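Notes from hallway chat w/ T.B., transcribed later so I don't forget. T.B. wanted the structure written out for a chain they're using in a teaching module, and asked if we could keep both sequence and structure tokens in one place. Agreed to drop them here.
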Amino acid sequence: MNKRWLAALVTVLAVIALAAFGAAAHSSSTQNGGTFKIGTSSRIDSLNPYVAFNQDAYNTFEYVYPLLVQYDKSNSHFAPDFATSWKSSNGGKTWTFKTRANAVWSDGKPLTAKDAAWTINTDLKYASGGAANAAGLVAHIKRASAPNATTLVVRYTKAAGNVLGQFQQLAILPQHVWSKYTGHKGNDLKTFSNSPLVGAGPFKLVKFKKNDIALFQRNDSFYGEKPKADGFGLRMFSNEDTLVAALKAHEIDAIESVPGTAIKTLRAGFNIRSAPGVDQTDFIINSNPKKTAHRELLSLKVKEAMAHAVDRKQIIKVVFLGYAKPASTIIPPATGAWHNPSVEPEKFDLSLANKLLDQAGLKKGKDGIRRASGHKMSYAVITPTDVPSTNRTFQILQPDFRKIGINLTQRALDSTAAFDAMTAPNNKYLKFDLALWDWVGLIDPDFMLSVVTCAQYAGWNDSGYCNPRYDKMYSQQQLTPNQAKRKQVVWKMQKYLYGQKPYIWLAAQDAVWAVSKNWGGLVASPQGPFNSISKISLTRVHQQ
């Protein structure tokens, strides 16, 4: 057992029995209490919602902050969270939410609809600066107001079609804490470490050590369904082997995303659960039209050739051991009707890839590497070290790209440094060429569609892609209240991006998690048990 993990838990969660860290009672009945320990190879890169990039950070925000709505157990319908009910009026341009009465923040201050109105208006005011991460979530909103403590009124410039989907992602922040950090035209929002974190979710974050542990204690003053466990812990591992070994040694109770190589060995002693996932790996091509170096990567013919050099079957077999499907569009199949099934993955065909590059006039040198504008087609591929699949994926891509005359080298960086390198200098996206990463999508397609908009420069944009025609389609789907008609626009956008190729999509992963047989109650989700879709899963997890 990791002694640092145990000592930290004992120190911080003194109210939780030490026995919770041993083997749970071998009883089939439900037992409240105990601390559920989750292992991950991912990271919480920041506790600041205006800075955070990694998925586990947003999973954390789901459980420590109020959101107006969440998804239900089926992951297909919106359900109450801080809002108990909602309705639209004025032709869909006004939305009124009734919120919980007598709610409180973790520091004891009242939580009211005024906090929600302040958060929305702050994100609106600084959407082009410090609140850029949230800009898409408040698009087309004119203003928000709270006529009383339990009523939130949000007025839109035009009737929107993604209102609830946006508010399912927008964490409501305590005005009495965050209003101190709006200086320098809102840029100070990004400077706040957010520690100690004042929240109002079912759990309180009571300890955080970056790249190590995050400890959460049950919040008995939570306005909604109270957790059955005393708390949960997230332990961050540097590699997958030690992660799996810790589960086998019962140092942890679950792995939030099981490496494909470990699934078979864990089946005998643990419950393995899976669901079609919204996590997709991608090959990112810097598509900034203003980039000055290696402009051949802006060529659609070059991008198409690269797409035909991707052996998705081998990636799925080797990297994910079959627990994935070929990916083709920015909206994963697990989202259901939002995914456009007519957009199919490019076939693996090195002969066709070579032919396309020959047609583009990019000739091979004596070393087998092609030349473009006098320089070798040799590029560094940025890979985040806390996404282990990118390393194995690179090893598959490199030799095949060599066969079409493109030399790839790997540049492994932690996720923060990787994103900084991709957006450099000063969010202009000028210096990087290629990267491997993944995107964890949501059920509603709006967020994933937003990450390649011009507005997300300095925000979520990781490809440098900026296209006014695409942005117009993005705005159109936001302003289409009829969901059937909105789906048509979303399908059109997927097909358009497929042709533009800021991303070459690789694999749509299954969400696979492993849980000790001493714990039950986790709710299946396309993002796994620790997710940013709903508070239900870790609220209901219990000893058995």
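Follow-up for T.B.: The first strand starts at residue 35 and ends at 40. Might be a good example for the class.
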